[in-house]
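Please supply some protein, with fold tokens.
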Amino acid sequence: MPWASSRTPSILFLVLIALFALPAQSWAQNNQRRSTTVPSDAYFVGFGAFFQGDYETAGEAFNSAGKSSAIISSDGRWVDSICYATMLGECHYQMGNNALALENYNTALLLFVQHTNWLLRISPDSIRPVSPETNDRRANVTWGSSGRNTIIGNYPDTLPMYRGNTDAQNQQVVRNGGVLSTLQVTPVRAGEIARCIGLAIFRRAEIMGPLAPHDGLTGQVLGALQRRPAPPNHWTGAWVDAQYGLALAAAGKTDEAVQTLQRSLTTAGQYDHVLTPLALIELGRLALKQQNYPAAKTYFLEATYSAAAFNQYGQIEDALDGLSEISMITEPGQMPQGLLAMQNWNELRKVDALRAKLNLALAEANSYMGNVPAASSALEQARRAMTRRSMAKGRVGIRYNYLSALINFQAGNANKGTSDFITAVKGNRAVSTRLYQTEMTNQLFVSGTLNERATQLLYDELLREPTDADWISAPFETLTVLLTPNAAAMEHWFNTAVIRKQPELALELADRIRRMRFFATLPLGGRMLALRWVLESPDSALDTKAKLQRQELVGKYPDLKVMQDEAKRLQGELAQISLQPDDKESYAKQRDLAEKLKVVSDNYELLLGAIALRRTPSQFLFPPLKSTPEIREKLDDTQLVLSFFSTSRAVHAFLFTKKDYVHWTLDNPREVKGQIGDLLKQIGLVKRDAPVQMKDLNDTQWQTTSAELLKKFIPSLKPGFWNNYSELVVIPDDVVWYVPFEAMHTDDGLGAGHTVPLVNLIPVRYAPTASLAVPEKGARPRPQNTAIIVGRLFNGEDDEVTQQHFDKLKDVFVAPDRIDRPTAAPSYLLSKVWNQLVVIDDSEDANRGDIWAWSPAQADRGKAGSELAAWLRSPMGGPEVIYLPGFHTGAEDALKGSSSGEDIFLTSLGLMATGSETVLLSRWHSAGSGSIAVVEGVGKRIGEMPASTAMQETIAEVRTMPLDSKMEPRLKGNDGGALQTLDHPYFWADMMLIDTGIDPQKNE
């Protein structure tokens, strides 16, 4: 909200310190005419607080001056209000209030458009040639000297300007109508107005980013300046050139902008002027975008010299940001001497904002050099400069928290580093220009201001996967974006592809959006996971770019390789011990090795945390991201993929094979959800672990409901359709995750309209993303061991039942080891050497709050290191195949709550992120003989055939098993109905196969 001007004492105090913000000459020249010169002296009072970083007080001063001193007539505000609006915008910008800042910059530029010819109203008699400035402040600069061989010009502080109508114009008004206006002459600080016009263009473009070229006001400003509204052959033309160059850059016309800005740098070919610093900074930014670092560095340095000459401390800050970024990119292991020398500049004592930013830059530089004490010292100096200044709540304070996190990770204080990072991201979400641009794009698309093509291009830019350039130039902004998924923007992005009839692109965008959802739930937005996969994946899984990134990381941080080797050694020794040692000596050895591995893991993670916050590129290898043609190329000729993507208004379906694809829309998501809920109720599900009545299972209504639902999912479905295909891969989304496709009734193609469960006709498996529908690995390796966690599959069941479950499974799996007592170490460490995992236990913590807090192994549930989040920690690794018959999902409540499929989606991706290829989990917790029989059947077949085929054969076998009510803990009542076997989906469709389609390794 705009600042009020009620803090009179503070503003009066600022009058005393504002003298340094004005050149001494200008103060003396205008001391006698404060009441008439604009912008007024009251306006300049705000600069003292502004340069000290007290932006709230400065904003009050600028706002107050605009109310009390601005020239306002029947035509509205005059050109002096450009300054009040621009500097109020600067205060809001520094505090991170993007919307209010943009509003004020818009006001300034609308005033400029209204008064485009303001320079042409300068009295021609007052214009004199430029002379050299006798007091060149560049001589006091301590960090270098200009190589441009220019002179600082001595320009008049004020110029008389005509306001109102001439006699001839008033006579025209009398004849034709209008408002009479007396011609007046007003002394105007034209240089300050010109500077503020340029600054408003410059900062507005920074806030709007890629949106600026699409904005009408950008075009208006560009058109006004293109007419070169300045006296002919006069030095004020350089001001217009600079403004025009800035406007060209905002409009995305880079080549023209560079030429115009270079031409604008001097008047009379030798004199710097008030817009020279901004022009140089813009040239530096354009060179930085083009990765021309030497040119960018030169432009930024030159900008600091020129800005120092004109007391433009704010522009020194902008140039300092550029210099710091270039230094971190090109010389991250060296201390930037120019920044060090700037510490000795006498002016720093009165400009706390610049002093704070300089020390933050030095803190980052020292951090990259590995000098933690010096980095901490510089950070402390920045904190002192921010003390009692409102900048501590704005962009400067947020960057302070980010660098504090980086330095704390580097110093070994992970808890403080994590806390500071969370604080920094929370603050940056509110000030991030990229997030603001994304929200603006949403609004413009919904309002119809932007067409689909323009919107799609903007989202391509704003919602992009992190690039190497993103990590190098803006790691903190990139992390903030990763941790802040904008569901509305992602949906609009997807919709642009649908509207433009690009189904293959829409399918790819759906996968991108799924990845974003996943990353946003992980610490540091998936950045740690990305680094682990680059560093620890097998060489065969890496492309050339990832291999080069690994080489660079290990070369820059040699401790990584040392810890990796030590972890491999310890894992090798752990693998030689029984998974659940029976003798004390082996148990003690396992515990000792695991403790050593934990130390390595903790140190490795600490180093990764420091790297993750740095300007270090890393690919996101998991989940993989493939284009639609790449996915289709990997499919067999008879494989069929059915992918869903839910938006707020529709459920989109994509059905594709190696050669064909089709897309359609289900227009009523609420109706779809209701029908899925009805199906789950008819199967017998009402509430988590609630009794299931035998009489309800005798009702066959579920067959009709499921057939109708499948027809809704695939409207073009015809009898015999499934006979053409060998496997169905389903990519669910939202509540579709809870649909048991295996049990959906469909016409068997034999005539007479006879229907059967879909699994009768085709093997079915699921994948969390379309890219995971096809395998990355060549073949599933032969397992060497199997950890079987033995607990109670249903609370309260007898030990005898538990033993029966174990007895059924122990001879099925390779080298089974029973784990039925507390483990010697956290399961996230022991799981690194488990090849297969079977959990005969009720996963009571599943689907109860935080998904990442759930314990996959259950043996150490509730203890540190048991949770899924810990399983992702280095060293990377986990069971190849995981069986979870005691898992719980939102299906158990028949979708009564806010179930959205995230419980299965995130769980499956989380387990696969450890290296698993196959996860067999229960959609609902039947906890009976059918669940164990499915585990048994898949377990004994999966080494010889694809998992989906193993699942199909197993289900066929289970459906013929006799019903033993003693082995079905949730089953209640016996009405003498026809149900004698497990041929009801409650018993066999609870288990869900999530699998990449990897084939078993063939025997030689």
